[in-house]
Amino acid sequence: MIINGSPRAPKSNSRKYSEIFIKYSKLQCDYFNITKSNHHELIAEMEKYSDVVIVFPLYADSLPVGLLNFLKNLETNLPKNRPVISILINCGFLEYEQNCVAVSMIRYFCRHNNLPMGSVLMLGSGEAILDTPFRYIAVRAIKRLSESVNKRNYKDLTATMPLPKWLFKMAARSYWIRYGKKFGVSEKEMKRMEIEGNM
Amino acid sequence: MSDRPINVKIGENKDIKYIDLSSMKIANCVGCFGCWTKTPGKCVIRDDAAKVYPFIAESSSVIYVSHVKYGGYDSVMKTMIERAIPIQQAFIRIHQGETHHVQRNVATKDAVIIAYGNTDSEEQEIFRQLVERNARNMNFGKYEIVFVTEHEVEKTVQNEFKKWEK
Ligand SMILES: Cc1cc2nc3c(=O)[nH]c(=O)nc-3n(C[C@H](O)[C@H](O)[C@H](O)COP(=O)(O)O)c2cc1C
């Protein structure tokens, strides 16, 4: 079972990462998004699987609040059959280490609720990597994650773009300029220092 | 800024703002990046969060009061923190040896985080690491974390507040 914990699940990077995971999985994979109102359904569903992979982005150095709310619900309605929980977390910044705190939070959650923890993949540069020549690095890591869950040979994995920080900074600049262009917003406008109405 | 009501007397001082998030209507961030690319500096969701993040940006001293869950902020505070990303730009800078976002007009802050609940030592350790990371993303110059039980919150806030009045 794959659970996407991104607030923009249908259009998320986490969804693309989930699809890659499924492509390489030999186990049957069923995919679900977390919504505000489907927590109980998801929890009932969890019961049927040996493994659950939660795929989600880093939000403000920790778990997106929608995922946090789901975990709080899960804690009070734990399934009788406890699946192994693996995670695939991605963050926007280059350093995959920035995901460590969120991973500790999931480990803490699992330990306190007697849910066995499986594999962990921490991805850095996750906002953009799939659209770059470094796509293969993310794909390779997700394939390894998928294999580790298949074989129940759980592992801690990491991946990011092999770029020096200054080059990542430049690449990010062009990425965001292109993003802004879609809305007709220039780099200068995006660099506006004012917040809200303080023009 | 607190995730529950707190009895503090602010008096006439216009430089001090008390925000009780629990009394506000704040939706979850939907991750659209509109605040970076469509309407820079403004969230496209026009609820109470848009009234809060300008104060976060402006303040040079903050006291954040939050319940702790799994070693992180509980939902009310976390929701607001996620909604505060309009105060940053999409663009990257290298800050303390790591890639982070460029801040808009955001004052460097002295932050006191009052983290309450029945936290165990493991949760406290995760929370310390979290705030250490936050410091880089949320422009903290100095910060201090105070772990307390729920019934000590009010007294702790009042103590911290007295330090401001000096
Ligand atoms: C509100 C918000 C907070 C974020 N906080 C962080 C962060 O603290 N560190 C980081 O590296 N990326 C952060 N990001 C970037 C996301 O982790 C990144 O864009 C990710 O690829 C989104 O994945 P998704 O499309 O699956 O949601 C944040 C994004 C948003 C919208």
Could you walk me through the main structural features you see in this protein, from its secondary elements to its overall organization?
The complex is a heterodimer of chains A (199) and B (166). With 199 residues, chain A is an alpha/beta fold. Chain A has two domains: 2-162, Flavodoxin domain (Rossmann fold, 3-Layer(aba) Sandwich); 164-199, no CATH class. Chain A has seven helices and six strands. Chain A has helices spanning 13-24, 39-46, 65-76, 100-112, 135-150, 165-181, 187-190, and strands spanning 2-4, 31-33, 51-57, 84-90, 117-123, 156-159. A six-stranded parallel β-sheet of chain A has the order 2-1-3-4-5-6, with helices on both faces. In chain A, strand 5 (117-123), helix 5 and strand 6 (156-159) form a beta-alpha-beta unit. Chain A is globular. The mean pLDDT of chain A is 97. By secondary structure, chain B is an alpha/beta fold. Chain B has one domain (21-165): Rossmann fold, CATH 3.40.50. Chain B has helices at residues 34-37, 49-58, 75-83, 121-137, 153-165; strands at 61-69, 72-73, 88-95, 98-103, 109-116, 140-148. In chain B, strands 2-1-5-6 form a four-stranded mixed β-sheet. The model of chain B has no long low-confidence stretch (mean pLDDT 96). The complex binds flavin mononucleotide. Flavin mononucleotide (FMN) sits between chains A (6, 8, 12-14, 57-61, 90-93, 98, 126-127) and B (29, 31, 82, 85, 137).
Give helix % range of chain A.
40-55%
CATH superfamily of the largest domain in chain A: Flavodoxin domain
Order of helices and strands of chain A, N to C?
EHEHEHEHEHEHH
Rg of Cα set of chain B: 16 Å
Structurally, the number of domains of chain A stands at: 2
Spatial gap, N to C terminus of chain B: 20 Å
Estimate the global geometry of chain A from the Cα principal axes: globular
> What profile does the largest beta sheet of chain A have?
6 strands, parallel
Biggest chain pair contact, residues each?
A: A-B, 49 and 51 residues
Which strand order spans the largest sheet of chain B, edge to edge or round the barrel?
Answer: 2-1-5-6
Share in β-strands of chain A: 15-25%
- Range of strand content of chain B: 25-35%
Can you identify the CATH class of chain B?
Alpha Beta
